[in-house]
Specification:
Protein name (chain B): Electron transfer flavoprotein subunit beta/FixA family protein
Helix content of chain A: 25-40%
Structural class of chain B: alpha/beta
Distance between the termini of chain A: 49 Å
Structural class of chain A: alpha/beta
Radius of gyration of chain A: 21 Å
CATH superfamily of chain B: HUPs
Number of strands of chain B: 13
Number of domains of chain A: 2
Largest interface: A-B, 97 and 76 residues
CATH architecture of chain B: 3-Layer(aba) Sandwich
Organism (chain B): Hymenobacter aranciens
InterPro entries (chain B): ETF_a/b_N, ETF_b, ETF_beta_N, Rossmann-like_a/b/a_fold
Number of strands of chain A: 15
Keywords (chain B): Electron transport, Transport
Strand content of chain B: 25-35%
Oligomer: heterodimer
Pfam families (chain A): ETF, ETF_alpha
CATH architecture of the largest domain in chain A: 3-Layer(aba) Sandwich
Number of helices of chain A: 8
CATH superfamily of the largest domain in chain A: HUPs
Helix content of chain B: 25-40%
């Protein structure tokens, strides 16, 4: 019996969300009196995988098959299922990402495991039961869910717990092969197109987000959002009306029918705060609202607020961040 | 081409969420239920693809009790040809996936579409479970879907970009924007929907694997601290020294 952690890597680095997943897995392993093994997917380096020891991982399995660099649903599922069988994993932990959801749902059927996604806290394992807290109603509520059966799969929501770093600890990295054949790569992507990451920070992984709404008046004013985001090392986002009229691409749309984010800092500029938008951001740790309308409902959900014109306030904030150095 | 579009019945996006006093169940009192917004992309795109091909059928499937029928009729009014309702409470993602897989297999559907996730449970699980149960590919979440004969080309969203994937039928895709502009029913659709077939079948398969023991609402905010717009830079100092987030 052990805990298997699925670690997503990109360009050699372990993704931040996967450092959190590794921490989660190590903590669950400690709760259950066992050790945590990781299986790495994507493009990784041995040195970075060994550093997963800092998150409490004992051993990392890595299949250097080059076709695993890009996400391939069937191949990833088989790889992780094979590792789970080899390790006798009773609990599998992955990120609540597009990869985690695609693989976790298939794995749950293949491994006859119960599955909880969007999990925000460590499990309660008293008396042999296994209960986790997960986000529901698009961020408007939480549900405690009890998982039955011998095997469990947990997809952990980003930024739900802080990755631990125990300096100096290293994990043993072992090469691993799931004996994948051409048939396992039948659904491999024909092409992978990455967005132009001018700001450099991806919204789903971001710790800080600067977001704009209709109050920004037009896409030509977005440099104000981008300047502040750049100064803060933040990702940019927008409300639904903004992506509906194509001022910004839809992948920046945060809300109930867009993406749900939970950064440490969310700065909303010219967004009134419709209930659908709040659902997508209300698990952010600190919310700042800038709006010229003091009655904007967003202020009720905010920690800090400025009642004022975004076109005057944003440059002042950017300047103040630069002054901090 | 036979399309199977799975829809779920969810509280309207503007709903203020509350629970029964024991926090065991969602409080449905006074709540307006709608077709899950993500599922509307799946439904509209299936209808568009059928129209473009000039042949085929679009069947909508819902796992739910009789109170979901108004939204099933709405899907028929938007343009689906017929509907199936599995008469059961949708206990969890696994249970729902079992129902969809059984019906997809029996009806030999070519393309099985659904929304990325439901806005109430937010599981984002059913697509992969159905694909695995049927042993067919799943593309999730799909932002674009085009068909040419039995081959589909899809754009799959990944963190920071997209993958172009092509698969042959049968396959499962979970849909999201900007796949299409979801349609709303017109008067003719509403009239014809009344007489379109809606078959009710019993649930099959194993029981659910997960159970909700309790719901909770997020903790309330302490209240907003307002900073004078003329002195906006003060906010940055507070974020560093008080909130410690920058």
């Amino acid at each position: 019996m052990s805990v298997l952690v699925v670690v997503e890597c990109d360009k050699g680095e372990v993704k931040k969300s996967s450092l959190e997943v590794a921490t989660y897995g190590a903590k669950v392993a400690a709760q259950l009196g066992t050790t945590a093994t990781a299986i790495a997917v994507g493009e990784a380096t041995e040195a970075n995988l060994a550093k997963l020891g800092e998150q409490g991982i004992a051993k990392v399995l890595y299949d250097a098959e080059p076709r695993l660099k890009d996400f391939v649903n069937n191949a990833y599922t088989k790889l992780i299922a094979t590792a789970a069988e080899q390790e006798g994993a009773k609990v599998i932990v992955l990120a609540n990402s597009n990869i985690g959801a695609a693989v976790g749902s298939r794995l749950s059927v293949r491994l006859k495991a119960s599955l909880a996604t969007n999990v925000v806290d460590l499990p309660k394992t008293d008396g042999g039961s296994f209960t986790v807290k997960r986000g529901a109603f698009s961020g408007k509520a939480f549900a405690d869910v009890t998982l039955s059966g011998d095997r469990k799969i947990i997809a952990v929501k980003k930024n739900s717990l802080e990755a631990q770093h125990e300096a100096g600890k290293t994990a043993e990295v072992s090469s691993f092969s799931a004996q994948l054949s051409d048939a396992d790569f039948a659904d491999a992507p024909k092409q992978v197109v990455m967005q132009d990451q001018a700001g450099g920070v991806l919204l789903p992984e971001a710790e800080r987000v600067v977001s704009g709404g209709r109050g920004m008046k037009g896409p030509e004013n977005w440099h104000l959002i981008e300047d502040l985001a750049k100064a803060l090392g933040a990702a940019t986002a927008c409300s639904k009306p903004v992506s509906d009229v194509d001022w910004r691409p839809h992948h920046e749309h945060v809300g109930q029918t867009g993406i749900t984010v939970s950064p440490n800092l969310y700065i909303a500029c010219g967004i009134s705060g419709a209930i659908q938008h709040l659902a997508g951001v209300n698990s952010s740790k600190v919310i700042v609202v800038i709006n010229k309308d003091p009655e904007a409902p967003f202020f009720k959900a905010a920690d800090y607020g400025i009642v004022g014109d975004v076109f005057e306030v944003l440059p002042k904030l950017t300047a103040a961040v630069k002054e901090l150095g | 081409m036979k399309f199977l579009v799975c829809i779920s019945n969810v509280p309207d996006t503007t709903t203020k969420i509350t629970f029964t006093p024991d926090n065991k169940e969602f409080n449905k009192a006074g709540v307006q239920f709608v077709i899950n917004p993500w599922d509307e992309y799946a439904l509209t795109r299936a209808i568009e693809l059928k129209e473009a091909a000039g042949s085929g059928t679009v069947t909508v499937l819902n796992v739910g009790e009789a109170d979901t029928e108004p939204n099933i009729r709405k899907a028929l009014a938007i343009g689906a040809d017929d509907a199936i309702r599995v008469n059961a409470h949708p206990q969890d993602a696994y249970f729902v996936a079992e129902q969809i897989a059984a019906i997809a297999k029996e009806g030999a559907y070519d393309v099985i579409l659904m929304g990325k996730e439901s806005i109430d449970y937010n599981g984002f699980q059913v697509h992969g479970m159905v694909g695995e149960m049927l042993g067919i590919p799943t593309v999730a979440p799909a932002m674009k879907l085009d068909m040419s004969g039995n081959t589909a080309t899809l754009e799959r969203e990944i963190e920071g970009g997209k993958e172009i994937v092509s698969v042959n039928t049968p396959f499962v895709a979970s849909c999201q924007q900007p796949m299409c502009e979801p349609r709303i029913p017109n008067m003719r659709g509403i009239m014809t929907a009344r007489t379109k077939p809606l078959k009710v079948v019993a649930a099959v398969g194993e029981p659910a694997r997960t159970q909700v023991s309790e719901f909770a609402l997020p903790p309330k905010k302490q209240g907003v601290k307002l900073i004078d717009a003329a002195n906006a830079g003060e906010l940055i100092k507070l974020l560093r020294n008080e909130a410690k987030v920058i």
